[in-house]
Write a structure and sequence with these properties.
The chain has 17 helices and 19 strands. The protein has 466 residues and is an alpha/beta fold. The protein folds into two domains: 241 residues, Alpha-Beta Barrel (nicotinate phosphoribosyltransferase), CATH 3.20.140.10; 174 residues, Aldolase class I (TIM Barrel), CATH 3.20.20.70. A hairpin with a 5-residue loop joins strand 14 and strand 15. It starts with 9 loop residues before the first helix and ends with a helix.
């Protein structure tokens, strides 16, 4: 997350961590605990109405890890808290991420309890990185999943990201534009994201432009005069039907000048009914080439309703509800220690237990080359016919290969969706895709559980006797 991908310099991002990551790090340091640790990132349960998730956020994680360092200002702040001792702060001064990352590539589908990313590094390095890793992968995977659901609901109609004004900050707006594009959107209204990622830009006009003129038709004329090759007129500032007739007037004036009105936009009201009325008005004026764009609080549920109602809407602009993943704004994504110094470890808490050891996810296909099921296995297992999803993307603190272009991630996700059974793509309570655990991983889990229970029992008895 250095340079163009962040609103903060790399020297400040090291402080984007929870305090307990640093207090644990000092305790590790004082105990001489520098052995390799493996942490696994996964989502325990699907958010509402989800049966798949889209992997996203890896690019920002890799940027962050490659540039992880505590600058002078950060160290001065930590010193000023009075919490940390001098030798530990001197250690942080030279800290760099030297470990490795295995991950499911961005744009691939993954499922509950599957590790989407695993970090192996000296335990202090891996522990400090937890907060940012969860923050980036959790947020962006939710946004990419929400956007992908909109693409499925639109059934081939183009979508544009209009979310920048109401996302939760600048980073979230950037992430929304990027994630929605590789999820299948055609454009974004976010000019910075358009410039940064090469995403086509899209935009029309605001109601303020219309109301700044005395007459709506004069506002339309002024805008069309400035943009005769790309004019899209917003119809609902006053009366949508009357606005459509004003658009017809301006469209005919554009035709006389050798141009064509591109589209009109509906942003409020009964979009199904209004789109039919506007379509009729345009067609009766022989303006069948003028498209209708709909926006205004849309997400996959409203888009699905409009498409199923055969509303004559050619494309959709989606903003607030998608940009904050309104119906599923959070997940229980966790980053859990699964091995330390060669010893597999796990958590036994009720409803929050974890599997031990580094892992791999294998994806099996049926005879038609469609997804059949996934198997979570130990990282060194092999499964004939299964595609291993986690690959090494960072080694010795550096990328193993250049990041794929955004259009390649976009194609990857489209291919995964083609191979996922439609049952799992439903918008309402879809059945879960089958995910199993290998026999070997189950055996390891039971062995580690028994070892922990035995050691904790002995520890408790020893404490009571003392």
């Amino acid at each position: 997350m250095n340079g163009p991908n962040s609103v903060l310099p790399a020297s400040d991002l090291a402080l984007f961590t929870d305090l307990y990551q640093l207090t644990m790090a000092q305790a590790f340091y004082q105990q001489g605990m520098f052995a390799p640790a493996t942490f696994s990132l996964f989502i325990r349960q699907y958010p509402t109405n989800r049966a798949y998730l889209v992997a996203a956020g890896l690019e920002d994680v890799l940027d962050y890890l490659e540039n992880l360092r505590f600058g002078p200002d950060s160290l001065d702040y930590l010193r000023s808290t009075g919490i940390f001792e001098g030798n530990f702060l001197e250690y942080l001064k030279n800290l760099r991420f030297t470990g490795s990352v295995r991950a499911i590539p961005e744009g691939r589908l993954f499922f509950a309890n599957e590790p989407v990313l695993e970090v192996t590094a000296p335990i202090i390095e891996a522990q400090i990185a937890e907060t940012l890793i969860i923050n980036q992968v959790n947020c962006q995977s939710l946004l990419a999943t929400k956007a992908a659901r909109c693409v499925l609901a639109a059934q081939g109609r183009p979508l544009a990201d209009f979310a920048a004004r109401r996302t939760h900050g600048i980073d979230a707006a950037r992430q929304m534009a990027r994630c929605s594009y590789f999820a299948g959107f055609q454009a974004t209204s976010n000019v910075l994201a358009s410039q940064r990622y090469g995403i086509p830009s899209s935009g029309t006009m605001a109601h303020s432009f219309i109301s700044s003129f005395v007459a709506e038709v004069d506002a339309f004329r002024a805008y069309a005069g400035s943009f005769p090759h790309r004019a899209v007129l917003l119809l609902d500032t006053y009366d949508t039907v009357q606005g459509a007739y004003h658009a017809v007037t301006v469209a005919r004036e554009l035709e006389a000048a050798g141009h064509r009105l591109v589209a009109v936009r509906l942003d409020s009201g009964d979009l199904a009914d209004l789109s039919r009325q506007v379509r009729r008005i345009l067609d009766e004026a022989s303006l069948n080439y003028v498209n209708i764009v709909a926006s205004g609080g849309l997400d996959e549920y409203e888009i699905d309703t409009l498409v199923k109602a055969a509303a004559p809407i050619d494309s959709f602009g989606v903003g607030t509800r998608v940009g904050v993943s309104a119906d599923a704004p959070w997940s229980d994504m966790a980053y859990k220690l699964v091995a330390y110094d060669g010893r597999p470890v796990m958590k036994l808490s009720v409803d929050k237990s974890s599997q031990p050891g580094p892992r791999q996810v294998f994806r099996l296909l049926d005879a038609a080359r469609r997804f059949s099921r996934d198997i979570i296995a130990a990282s060194d297992e092999t499964l004939p016919g299964g595609e291993p999803l986690l690959g090494t993307v960072l080694s010795d603190g550096r990328r193993t290969a250049p990041s794929p272009p955004l259009d390649e991630i976009r194609r990857t996700l489209a291919q995964d969706f083609q191979r996922l059974d439609d049952r799992h793509k439903g918008l309402y309570n879809p059945p879960h895709y089958p995910v199993a655990v290998s026999d070997r991983l189950q055996q390891l889990t039971q062995q580690v559980r028994s070892t922990i229970e035995e050691s904790q029992g002995k520890s408790s008895e020893g404490g009571a006797a003392g």
